[in-house]
Amino acid sequence: MVVEEGLEYGPAKHRAAKALGLPQRTPLPDNDALEDAVRDYIAVFCADTQPRELLALRRLALKWMERLQDFQPHLSGAVWRGTATRWSDVHLDLFCEDGKAAEIALMDQGLIYETRSTTGLRHKPVDVLSLHAPCRELGDLTGESVVGVHLRINDLDDLRGALLPDARGRAPRGPAQALRELVRASELQNG
Fold it and tell me: Which of 55, 77, 99, 115 is most exposed, with the fewest beta carbons within 10 Å of its own?
């Protein structure tokens, strides 16, 4: 579900538990265990396509980060972790003094988006602006593919804590410069 449908870990775990008929309070694997399983699955079943798809999604994310540079964008999720496939969405954390400024920037660019709420970095509700972006690199014979881009609006003050490493010592998100380095390394590796 994570690899072939692009589901995030939480929804995938809950759907799998429901499909298996497990009780609601059944302990589910932690995200690190799930990520290890996703990486194993990709290595076995997607090794020939996933690196190209990940590179395309990272390039798309970088374009959006450059477009929204005034809001200190940081990439997170599967595209940042390196487990994304063509079905994955791009998740950007924006850090703003005024969250409405990001919405105004999208409107000024003539972009159509949907607003929803999710739990933020400080476990309080924050807005997420979701839109669809074309990605020619993921296209096939019928043309370009469309990728979900989700912009989580955080307070500027949340940036400091947002970069603390996870249990494995990895950054949970990264700025445009770090993404540029990942893209450059992939381009060199893939020729």
Answer: 115
